[in-house]
Specification:
The structure holds two protein chains of two kinds. Chain A is mainly α. Chain A has a domain of 231 residues. In chain B, the strands form five sheets. In chain B, strands 13, 16, 19, 20, 21, 22 and 23 form a seven-stranded mixed β-sheet that branches. A six-stranded mixed β-sheet of chain B has the order 6-7-8-3-9-10, with helices on both faces. A four-stranded antiparallel β-sheet of chain B has the order 2-1-4-5, with helices on one face. In chain B, strand 17 and strand 18 form a beta hairpin. Chain B has 18 helices and 23 strands. In chain B, helix 14 packs parallel to helix 15. Chain B is of the alpha/beta class. Chain B is globular and about 70 Å long. Classes of the chains: A mainly alpha, B alpha/beta. Chains A and B meet through helix 8 and helix 9 of A and helix 10, helix 11 and strand 18 of B.
């Protein structure tokens, strides 16, 4: 068996390949579920019902989708320019910290001014967290995988220190929990008796905006060119340093906005478990979306559904909910294979 | 290694029988058959895309043929296994060397030869064996030197030694002269003759008719995947072979001498040092006039790329002045330099000239995407860009399905047409071309030459950097030789000869050259 590159990939194939990959990941995971003693069909049924079966389940899944869209988008933009941003988690917390610092009564502005301002400052905080590693990369050649990854721990420990220190809410009965943000700053709910907030509209609007920037503007042109061939981009005279800085600001900013939405949306305050790894899951989302901005929402929905649904399945069938992580990991692998198969054809020897 | 039972020179060592191979709708190899005899140099001629590389990849096990058979020394060769090809005594020297610069010669030779599972490398034994092979074949390279320190000719010898070390009795040389000086080519040909006298059989792949006529015993011409011509070398000539390769007659191109116009590019005392302080351009003076092609002769690595980069806006000289017309362009950005009328054809169209993962229209505007023609308020005017690309495709005969496909689908010649179309459409006053025909087939080479000559006649100055002396002598009005970062005095074409240029490329005879 050998692989040969296709001259071009048809549109049908580029849609079918990811769907095939998902199907393959379910089939492979079925073996693992069966091995842990449950019926795979009923496990998948419970996952599906747990994620979409009731109005509440559906809104919970969508609520989880919001930060995943934003971090997935952040990673997509960065990876497109081959800026390996592993630090979305830290950037998310940076945005969240500023949201509680400025939104818990420090600034007595009207909500219609303060909420946009909090998003702006959160985006700037996230952006600055990525700007440093990016400048170190472009100026000194320091590997950004290392710096962004390690910065996550620095930021998380700093947040932890803040939550036990200046930001600690004395009425939280000793829990490391921040002052809550003012009620009037909380994002409006889209549906009653749910946690689904307008953040999802914002996230989807940002998807379209990022798609437009990446595909239709000269900034996006530069980002894609630098990612596809830095030497060729330099030869053509593209401002590589400038393009990288813009990518960093956009990517870090999106991750910072994810932190603000979580604080102003479902949470209302900051704890050290604000994000169950949304920053890292953003990498999975971006890869499942094949680094295409419009692929990010469905990929984020899939990952969110897996995690919400797996909890329900775990309660019903006593299969550990870790199975959700197994399924998404396998989906990631099958997606990478599918992308390759869409580009190459298999030949028998 | 068991050649004792063979006698005479007519023994068939390699038989290729009815090899066919398709990629999609393209028949890269169509029922190709031929024999290679012991002690023979068989030249395989053909344009790019004629199927030479595919055939050699099948032979060496990188591809599997759809149909047909390869026999080495009377035994069928297992398909799809480079290891089987090596064990059967087939050695291949690729056009682009597969050597690690940071390893020594002996390490490079044993990589991939000795088992990965052996606990340690017996360097002394390997070196002794390599030295024995080297003495026997007359290929002298110090086994302990680092490959990064060797000249191109020496690296090629290492590649050949690697094949010999592995016991090759059939040697495939893919475009072996592309990177060599005339003197190094002579040396390579002597090596080939010595090896053949010792019973080696050689397949020599080349575009260069003169070399094929010099070294080979027999010629096979491939065109569109088929064997279209086969003859003993003694019974054919360059004209016939060229016609067979392209399937039509080629116009004989020679750049007419035109009265040169005013100076368009002027270097005064330009010097460049690398970050480590090495001298890369040494007090270079150079003038290119309008209506003039100035050819830069030299072995690669003597500063040509730095010279190119200075004009292209990628390297700023530390001292001296570079002027384009009346304006100083030292240290201007590539965009500013392109904007002031310089057309740049880089050496590597894959890595520098184009971004092959982007679409054809996106590459067509890569040097001008910020002009108001192609963007408005930061948004790309896709319609304009696609129309512009379609115009280039028509005007420069770029073979592609549409401007909306990834650039990587283009063949080498069409990639170069896209680069050249992109720059010529702006009617530059100066064109700087670095190896613009390297790796192109005869048809594409004559296309490039024709365009450069037309640009010169239109009034552009052309600075042509090449390692192909024939090309430089055919196109240039004036030649300068580059050696170790320095440029010679200009030599008018009618006073230049291959012999003097060849010596000057090696750093000799600089004082006498312009006194001839």
């Amino acid at each position: 068996m050998r692989f040969e590159r296709r001259e071009s990939t048809s549109a049908l194939l580029s849609v079918l390949a990811p769907l095939g990959a998902l199907a393959a990941s379910f089939i492979i995971s079925a073996g693992i579920i069966a091995w842990s003693g449950a019926n795979p069909i009923s496990a998948y049924r419970h996952i599906f019902l747990g994620a979409f079966g009731t109005r509440f389940a559906m809104t919970e899944t969508l609520t989880r989708t919001v930060p995943l869209i934003l971090t997935g988008l952040a990673v997509t933009v960065a990876f497109r320019a081959r800026l390996w941003n592993i630090g979305a988690e830290g950037q998310l917390y940076a945005g969240a910290v500023l949201a509680v610092v400025l939104g818990s009564g420090t600034l007595a502005w009207p909500a219609y001014l303060l909420v946009p301002f909090l998003f702006l400052t959160g985006a700037i905080a996230g952006a600055l967290c990525l700007l440093g590693p990016t400048l170190l990369k472009t100026r000194l050649g320091v590997d950004e995988v290392v710096t962004t990854l390690l910065l996550n721990f620095v930021i998380l420990l700093a947040v932890s220190a803040l939550l036990d220190g200046p930001l600690k809410d004395p009425s939280a009965m000793g829990w490391p929990q921040s002052y809550p943000v003012l009620d009037e700053l909380r994002l409006p709910l889209l549906m009653r008796a749910s946690r689904l907030h307008v953040g999802i509209v914002l996230a989807l609007a940002l998807v379209v905006a990022v798609w437009f920037i990446v595909n239709k503007t000269i900034w996006g042109y530069e980002i894609r060119a630098v990612g596809a061939n830095p030497i060729g981009a330099r030869f053509a005279g593209l401002p590589i340093g400038g393009a990288m800085v813009r990518v960093a600001l956009l990517s870090g900013g999106l991750a910072g906005i994810a932190g603000v939405t979580e604080v102003l949306g479902p949470k209302g305050d900051l704890t050290i478990d604000l994000s169950p790894g949304y920053g890292y899951s953003g990498i999975v989302v971006a890869m499942l979306a094949v680094l295409h901005p419009l692929g990010v929402p469905p990929a984020a929905l899939f990952v969110a559904a897996m995690f919400v649904g797996a909890d329900a399945m775990s309660r019903a069938l006593a299969v550990p909910s870790y199975i959700a992580e197994v399924i998404t990991s396998i989906a990631l692998l099958t997606m990478l294979v599918a992308v390759m198969l869409a580009r190459y054809r298999i030949r028998r020897s | 290694m068991g050649t004792a039972e063979q006698s005479g020179v007519s023994q068939v060592v390699l038989r290729i029988a009815d090899i066919s191979k398709s990629f999609g709708n393209l028949r890269a190899n169509d029922r190709i058959s031929f024999d290679l005899k012991e002690g023979e140099v068989l030249a395989l001629l053909g344009e790019n895309g004629a199927g030479k590389t595919t055939l050699m990849n099948i032979l060496f096990g990188h591809y599997v043929a759809d149909a047909g058979l390869v026999e080495a020394f009377g035994k069928p060769l297992k398909a799809g296994s480079p290891r089987a090809a090596i064990n059967a005594g087939i050695g291949m020297v690729h056009q682009h060397f597969a050597l690690a610069d940071n390893l020594s010669v002996v390490e490079n030779v044993v990589v991939g030869t000795d088992s990965l599972w052996s606990p340690y490398l017996d360097r002394a034994a390997a070196r002794a064996r390599l030295e024995a092979v080297a003495t026997q074949s007359g290929l002298t390279v110090d086994p302990r030197s680092r490959v990064g320190d060797l000249t191109v000719g020496e690296r090629q010898r290492v590649e050949i030694l690697k094949a010999l070390y592995r016991g090759a009795r059939v040697l495939i040389l893919d475009e072996p002269t592309a990177v060599l000086t005339p003197q190094e080519i002579d040396q390579l040909f002597q090596t080939i003759r010595d090896l053949v006298a010792g019973g080696m059989s050689v397949i020599f792949i080349s575009h260069k008719l003169k070399e094929v006529l010099r070294i080979s015993d027999r010629v096979i011409v491939l065109r569109s995947g088929r064997v279209v011509f086969e003859a003993p070398t003694a019974g054919t000539n360059a004209t016939e072979l060229a016609q067979q390769m392209v399937g039509r007659e080629l116009p004989a191109l020679r750049s007419e001498l035109v009265v040169p116009g005013p100076a368009v590019l002027r270097f005064s005392h330009v010097s460049v040092r690398s970050k480590l302080g090495q001298r890369q351009l040494d007090d270079v003076d150079l003038i290119v006039h309008r209506n003039q092609i100035v050819g830069v002769v030299g072995v690669s690595g003597n500063g040509q790329n730095v010279l190119f980069n200075v004009v292209a806006g990628l390297t700023a000289p530390q001292s001296g002045e570079v002027r384009l017309g009346e304006t100083t362009i030292n240290g201007l950005s590539p965009i500013a330099i392109v904007g002031s009328g310089v057309g740049r054809i880089p050496e590597d169209r894959h890595a520098e000239g184009l971004i092959v993962d982007m679409l054809i229209w996106e590459n067509a505007i890569s040097e001008s995407y910020r002009s108001s023609e192609f963007q408005k308020a930061g948004v790309i005017r896709g319609g304009n860009a696609r129309n512009f690309a379609s115009g280039l495709i028509r005007e420069f005969d770029i073979r592609c399905p549409s401007p909306n496909v990834p650039t990587r689908v283009l063949s080498g010649g069409n990639l170069q047409k896209l680069v050249i179309g992109r720059i010529l459409s702006r009617e530059p006053q100066l064109i700087i071309a670095n190896q613009p025909t390297r790796g192109l087939d005869v048809g594409a080479v004559s296309f490039v030459h024709e365009k450069l000559i037309k640009a010169k006649e239109r009034g552009a100055g052309v600075l042509l950097i090449s390692e192909d002396l024939d090309e430089l002598l055919a196109l240039s009005d004036t030649l300068v030789v580059m050696y170790d970062g320095a440029l010679s005095e200009p030599i008018p074409r009618d006073r230049a000869s291959v012999q003097t240029l060849g010596l000057m490329m090696m750093g000799q005879g600089w004082d006498t050259a312009h006194a001839v």
